[in-house]
Write a structure and sequence with these properties.
Number of strands: 20
Mean pLDDT: 86
Distance between the termini: 74 Å
Order of helices and strands: HEEEEEEHHEEEEEEEEEHEEEEE
Shape: elongated
Number of helices: 4
Helix content: 25-40%
Strand content: 35-45%
């Protein structure tokens, strides 16, 4: 009998302990489910900021001259190729001159014939004048001879012009470099026929000086308002990914270009290339320094992007509910209770992509929430208009 009572008491004791343990576990779960979120913060601090605008552009020689042909014909010789340095006046190509030489020879013969005719009419005029002086001939014969003389003079002038034209075309068979520089493009081969009937065919492209180059960068319409002449530029090219090159904005062109509904503006950047390491046509990834601040109050951009999770409670129900200016943002600070936030309107200046300048609304050392580390279980409202501040 005593053994049964002892077993019953032991069972009751075990059941009581089990019940207490279950109650403790339930309380912990309930407490955990009702926990408010924890927030990560960063403090406003003094620092330096540099705002850059990025763009893509193409390297070009400052002056590139297309060398063409004013006449048609077959390329007889080429005396320049890619990367050939040339001086002004150097012959870089020659067109077969045989047809143009024949035209010159014919023009010379026509001119000689015209001059002979001129001499004959001059003698006729002199003879008729003598006859008139001796009253041995009529005045009409002299008038006729004088007219024929003037016609012969005009014919000589025409033949001289035709010879000059033929000689010029013959000279054009020798194509010379118009500037000092280096050949960066050759577009013909020996034996190829060029036709200059409607447009001047391009034979070579000469870069006048590739120690001075420029980049034509395409800057978006959203950024172009910040770009101005004289701003420093850093850029990289794929050929030398570990090298950082320097330049300077020299011109912002106001002519827009639209590609797939994106409006851009050409920005010219001057570049020194003393060792000729950079080549025309290279693609440059450009970073233009448009603003720089030293010793200003800054906060991380994560604070500007932070949005409180649903159910967050706020101390200032009306904070941030008004309409904001374009340079104003709402950030959040920890409230007096660890589970609450308060909204603060700040005025923002320049940004470097990681941090932003704070013009108004914060002091050095003030905290700003950058992230929430836990979710809110309860869905109570407390922000402006029954929700979180905007």
């Amino acid at each position: 009998m005593k053994s049964n009572e002892s077993s019953l008491q032991s069972f009751i004791c075990f059941a009581s302990l089990l019940l207490i343990a279950l109650l403790c576990i339930t309380g912990c779960i309930r407490k955990k489910s009702d926990a408010q979120p924890a927030f990560e913060t960063a403090r406003a601090k003094t620092g330096d900021l540099t705002q850059n605008i990025t763009a893509t552009g193409t390297l070009n020689a400052v002056v590139s001259v297309d060398v063409g042909s004013q006449i048609s014909g077959r390329i007889l010789t080429l005396k320049a190729d890619f990367n050939t340095p040339v001086k002004k006046g150097d012959v870089v190509a020659e067109i077969d001159p045989s047809l143009y030489q024949a035209t010159v020879d014919q023009a010379k013969g026509d001119l000689a014939s015209a001059k002979a005719g001129l001499d004959l009419t001059r003698l006729t005029v002199e003879r008729e004048r003598n006859l008139i002086a001796n009253k041995a001939g009529p005045q009409s014969d002299l008038d006729k001879a004088d007219a024929e003389f003037r016609q012969a003079q005009a014919q000589v002038a025409v033949k001289e012009a035709l010879l000059a034209s033929a000689s010029a075309n013959l000279d054009y068979c020798r194509i010379a470099a118009p500037v000092d520089g280096i050949v960066i493009a050759r577009k013909v081969d020996v034996g190829q026929t060029v036709a200059a009937a409607m447009t001047t065919p391009v034979l070579f492209t000469i870069a006048q000086d590739i120690t001075k180059m420029h980049i034509i960068a395409n800057v978006s319409e959203a950024d172009i308002g910040h770009v101005a002449s004289g701003q420093p530029v850093e850029f990289t090219v794929d050929a030398f990914p570990d090298d950082l090159f320097q330049g300077k904005v020299s011109q912002v062109r106001k002519a827009p270009a639209t590609t797939e509904n994106v409006v851009t503006y050409d920005t010219v950047i001057d570049v020194d290339n003393p060792d000729q390491k950079l080549f025309p046509g290279m693609t440059a990834e450009v970073s233009i320094r448009v603003a720089q601040r030293q010793g200003v109050l800054t906060i991380p951009n994560a604070a500007l992007r932070f949005t409180p999770p649903e159910g967050t409670k706020f101390e200032n129900a009306g904070g941030g509910a008004h309409k904001l200016a374009r340079n104003q943002r709402v950030i959040y600070q920890p409230g007096s209770d660890p589970a609450t936030l308060k909204a603060v309107v700040v005025k923002i200046g320049i940004t470097d992509g990681m941090d932003s300048e704070v013009l108004e609304g914060l002091r050095e050392g003030d905290p700003a929430v950058t992230a929430s580390t836990a979710a809110v279980a309860s869905k109570s409202s407390g922000g402006p208009m029954g929700g979180p501040p905007p």
